[in-house]
Design goal:
Layout lengths: L14 H18 L4 H20 L20 H11 L1
């Protein structure tokens, strides 16, 4: 079996979020089997994808979305304010 192609995907974290990601990986990544912070982020992201599939798609896998078809970049300041207000 040939190895799977790795796609490039860059999330953006605030400094506080990034610090917490690094801290969690350093404290527990090796206990969870993560070889790198990238492994840690992928594992956590895929766990969330599976949760959303169960909640919003009857547990079925979604059709893949091609690279380049989603909005790129960070949230605008207004979007960050709205998210922070909603999360409070």
């Amino acid at each position: 079996m040939s190895p799977k192609k790795i796609a490039r995907f860059t999330p953006y974290f605030t400094e506080e979020q990034a610090g917490q990601v690094r801290a969690a990986f350093q404290a527990a990544g090796h206990l969870e089997g993560d070889a790198s912070v990238s492994d840690f982020i992928v594992r956590a992201t895929m766990r969330e994808v599976k949760r959303l599939q169960r909640k919003h798609h009857q547990g079925r896998v979604w059709e893949p979305v091609p690279a380049g078809s989603l909005r790129r970049g960070q949230r605008t300041l207004n979007e960050i304010r709205q998210r922070d207000t909603k999360d409070s």
